[in-house]
């Protein structure tokens, strides 16, 4: 496994291996990476019930050790990332005590909050941004609340750049409403809202009624939200709030997608804004390491061409690769989830084949 699946999708087991991997990615022309620490806790319904009722483990020493291990691993990840990179954070990685607090919709305990603050302060000092991962819906409401709270603290200021990003899953029926509420809070309270937009990663474990009935519905929701955020205006999908400010706040966006149509549409909107000299949001494109390389490489090539052009407005897309590090055992749950959410990979085979043939012909013409 270490030589096949793990090597394809993960950055490495040691800091030295991770640094080498990141250097290789940036050498190819990527603007940066989204690096994650593999420690996480994926729980089933029986575990959710037990922890929610408080019948799970209550060893205070063990709970404290879990928080410290999570803090140290995350800070080590922040220190592996470079300025302008992102680090992905999973609150459930801090152990069962953290999960209990999330399930009960409590504030983080003092020890847990201090650990989060230390991570945020380290990231701010290094110019690294933090992506708070979406997780299972049993814990997501509390994750959203915590993310907004830390956004208030770290996303305000004159530089108009987010340190904290929340993750919004388009396959959830509730996402447009949730995001609209968060946009209104950011506008009312004067901070930048950091948004990572994804289609969704827990299709196999979430209650089915929470998710759109069809992939087409998810695609429509994803594309409509993306366009609203890029254009900085509400729409029929992402509706303006009934109460509160109607104007759109400052948004920083990570458009995380393996869908060619979604990426192309976003590029078209950015290009249109360029030529009309419209304000553009801070935005990057992201694909997983080891996946959708045809889309990622096109973004890299497009960015390289844009940097060499003179005269006239030219949008320069910023391409990022998302990857995790940790032992093979620590990364197993991540790898299983990647397989689950990419069951439709066969549907992309035709597009990938066309992209590979196009690149092959291009290299032939250049005599490479």
Automatic annotation (TrEMBL):
One of its GO terms (molecular function) is FAD binding. Converts proline to delta-1-pyrroline-5-carboxylate. Transmembrane segments: none annotated. GO terms for biological process: L-proline catabolic process to L-glutamate. InterPro entries: FAD-linked_oxidoreductase-like, Proline_DH_dom, Proline_oxidase. Pfam families: Pro_dh. Residues 22-346 form the Proline dehydrogenase domain. Its cofactor is FAD. It catalyses: L-proline + a quinone = (S)-1-pyrroline-5-carboxylate + a quinol + H(+). Keywords: FAD, Flavoprotein, Oxidoreductase, Proline metabolism. This is Proline dehydrogenase. Its EC number is 1.5.5.2. Belongs to the proline oxidase family. GO terms for cellular component: mitochondrion.
């Amino acid at each position: 496994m270490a030589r096949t699946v793990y090597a394809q999708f993960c950055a490495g087991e040691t800091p030295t291996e991770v640094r080498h991997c990141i250097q290789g990615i940036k050498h190819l022309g990527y603007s940066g990476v989204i690096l994650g620490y593999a420690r996480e806790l994926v729980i089933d319904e029986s575990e959710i019930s037990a922890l929610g009722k408080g019948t799970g483990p209550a060893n205070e020493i063990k709970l404290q050790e879990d928080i410290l291990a999570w803090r140290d691993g995350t800070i080590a990840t922040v220190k592996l990332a470079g300025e302008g990179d992102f680090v992905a954070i999973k609150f459930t990685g801090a152990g069962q005590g953290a999960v209990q607090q999330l399930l009960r919709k409590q504030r983080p305990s003092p020890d847990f909050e201090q650990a989060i603050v230390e991570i945020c302060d380290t990231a701010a000092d290094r110019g690294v941004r933090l992506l708070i991962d979406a997780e299972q819906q049993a814990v997501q409401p509390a994750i959203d609340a915590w993310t907004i709270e830390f956004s208030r603290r770290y996303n305000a200021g004159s530089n108009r750049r987010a340190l904290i990003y929340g993750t919004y899953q388009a396959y959830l029926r509730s996402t447009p409403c949730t995001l609209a509420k968060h946009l209104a809070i950011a506008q009312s309270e004067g901070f930048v809202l950091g948004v990572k937009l994804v289609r969704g990663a827990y299709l196999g474990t979430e209650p089915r009624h929470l998710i759109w009935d069809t992939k087409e519905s998810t695609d429509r929701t994803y594309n409509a939200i993306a366009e609203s955020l890029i254009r900085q205006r509400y729409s029929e999908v992402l509706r303006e709030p009934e109460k509160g400010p109607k104007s759109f706040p400052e948004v920083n966006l990570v458009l995380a997608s393996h869908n060619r149509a979604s990426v192309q549409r976003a590029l078209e909107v950015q290009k249109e804004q360029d030529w009309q000299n419209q304000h553009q949001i801070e935005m990057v494109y992201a694909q997983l390491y080891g996946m959708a390389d045809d889309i990622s490489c096109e973004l890299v090539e497009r960015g390289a061409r844009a940097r060499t052009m003179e005269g006239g407005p030219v949008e320069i897309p910023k391409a990022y690769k998302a990857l995790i590090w940790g032992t093979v055992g620590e990364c197993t749950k991540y790898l299983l989830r990647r397989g689950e959410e990419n069951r439709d990979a066969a549907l992309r085979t035709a597009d990938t084949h066309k992209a590979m043939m196009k690149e092959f012909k291009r290299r032939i013409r250049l005599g490479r």
